[in-house]
Amino acid sequence: MFDVRQVGSVREVSVEAWDRLGGRLYDSHAWHRFQEVERPGISSSHLLAYDLSGTLAAALPVYRVSRETHGNYQLHRQLPAAGAADAEQVLLGNRHGYNNNLLVRADLTRDQRVSAFRELVAAAQEMLRGVTAVAWWPYLDDESMVLLRPLVGGPTPLALKSECLISLPGTDFGDYLAALPKRRRSAVRADRRRFAQAGYQVFSRRYRDCVTDVVRLGLQTAKKYGGGLDLAAATVMMERQADALDDVSAVLACGRDGCVAGFALVMDHGRSSCVRTAGFDYAEAGNAAEYFELVYYRPIERAYALGRTELWLGPSSYQAKLLRGAVPQARWGLPLQVTDWPDAEVRGHNSTKLHELQAELGSPELHHRIPYDSYRDHC
What we know:
Elements: E1 3-7, H1 15-19, H2 29-37, E2 42-50, E3 56-65, H3 75-78, E4 89-92, E5 103-104, H4 110-127, E6 134-140, H5 142-148, E7 158-167, H6 173-178, H7 182-197, E8 201-205, H8 211-224, H9 231-245, E9 249-256, E10 259-269, E11 272-280, H10 290-305, E12 310-312, H11 318-323, E13 327-337, H12 343-361, H13 372-376
Parallel strand pairs: 4-6, 11-12
Antiparallel strand pairs: 1-2, 2-3, 3-4, 3-5, 6-13, 7-12, 7-13, 8-9, 9-10, 10-11
């Protein structure tokens, strides 16, 4: 039913044809262009399913990574039984961004989607014949996981860090605020007063014009929370990201006298805006709700102004995000080629992940936002 072809780069596919396969940033042609050049040690292939009319219907990106440096994408750190430390990996779909939706045209029926991915999975298995590296899908959304799972033998999916999404009601910030509980509305107004009283200049810049500040402040924030990034490597990665994604990006920043004290990097595609990263100079910022203003409130205002209906915030800091209206979205790993995927151990891991999320949220009043239905059959 589908003609499956292989290309080495997303650049061999037109932007128009590729972007029909998904409506969010991490599905986009621009995002995959960045992933191909992010750093050395990555080689890409893309399996493409064309329908009988010769139109691209679905795609499966395949990234061979000689040494994955991001711990959240290292399978052995998520499930030690499933992979060797620092070994080569094959990541299917997205290899960055905590969002991995199946790339498929919206007009296909479910049966057609299943058929397309049955052929793409078979092609990936054939392509990886003789390759000893583990191959897996990281950070699949619920719908993608449910479709793929029976195509790879029905393993228990592996719970990973949850994404966070604010669905934006109405047409402006007032509508967002009105949707929050009364106590939370008061807290947001207090945050915004503190920020306004600090007297910051607030501005928006193109990504390519402020890579230096993004790297500088991003490294400070990473260091504060235990991250260890190399300045030279981070600079190269951000420069390559800006080259690929500058047209869909904005850096929202605050500062005084021309010096940037904090920023949030926001990217757009389709109906969504995504807060990709943020950073702060803690000698200048930290006491005036700068984080909340730049990571939540300004991106929400901007999203409304651009007609977006979703704001994606990434994983972690769940309590702060849920208190400001976000809902966690479960994310899953599935194996394509893994020596051992022990279901009992995976279920135990999933239960632990769920309990960790409950513990981080603290107040039981937030627990109702946890997607228990997503976890129920996998713990």
